[in-house]
Amino acid sequence: MTKLFANIFFFLLVISIPFYVSAYPTGAGTCDVALMTTQGHGPSQTSGFGGYSLSTTKSGQQFSLTIQGTSPIKGVLLYVQDSSGKKMGTFTFPSNYQACSGSGSAALTHTSSNMKSMPLSFTWTPPSGNPSGNMTVRGIVVQSYQNWHPLPDMNFDLASGVSSVSNNTNLNNDGSGSSSGSGGIGNCVTEAMLKNQRTKAKYNR
Question: Where on the tree of life does the source sit, at the highest rank (predicted)?
């Protein structure tokens, strides 16, 4: 029985390697900020916002979402959600950026791990139909595979464009306080692959 489980574990490990090796340099490992510690890079070796911030500026019917910071980054995840947590609107994707897989044009991520200098600005267009109400910008910036920072959530009003930093930014990028699964072979494989890829430090190539 022990040998059987060992064989199963080895098989799952082998078939998982191509995904983990190739996924993140060409886009975010997850399209959900809250899942980065469990389905994306795993816990970061650094904590807090790392000096990065978000700002929004309204121009006509569109908004400019700007990431500011003192250090270049290699990866990014950015999206706008309504009060229910649903991703809304569409991004205009400049060169070297793309839609985050599974979220259509409502979430933006990188296409390569090339260095990206600050500040970074992206154009976001609200849903059609003259919508109103408050929205929240959420995002993550990645300095290396093992070092990433959440961006402070930014609330803004669709009609007036007035924005403010949210009091609900509660992501612990070091993994503390995050929920975990029930264990078993699946989680063992995930942990093994995370440790393996941290060692390789994919973003540090």
Answer: Eukaryota
Question: Residue 134 pairs with which residues in a beta bridge?
Answer: 157
What are the pLDDT digits (tens) for 137-189? 999 999 998 899 999 999 999 999 999 998 655 556 665 433 333 333 233 33
Chain centre distance of CA 108:
9
Q: Is residue 85 situated within a structural domain?
A: yes
The CATH number of residue 133's host domain is: 2.60.40.4060
pTM here is 0.71
| pLDDT for the residue numbered 44 | 86
Between CA 77 and CA 54 the distance in angstroms is: 12
Q: What is the pLDDT of residues 93-108, one digit of tens each?
A: 999 999 998 888 999 9
In sequence order, which residues have a C-beta less than 8 Å from that of residue 81 and are 6 or more positions away? Answer: 87, 88, 135, 136, 138
Residue 166's identity, in one-letter code, is: S
Residue 156: is it exposed, middle or buried by C-beta count within 10 angstroms (0-12/13-18/19+)? buried
Domain count, the chain: 1
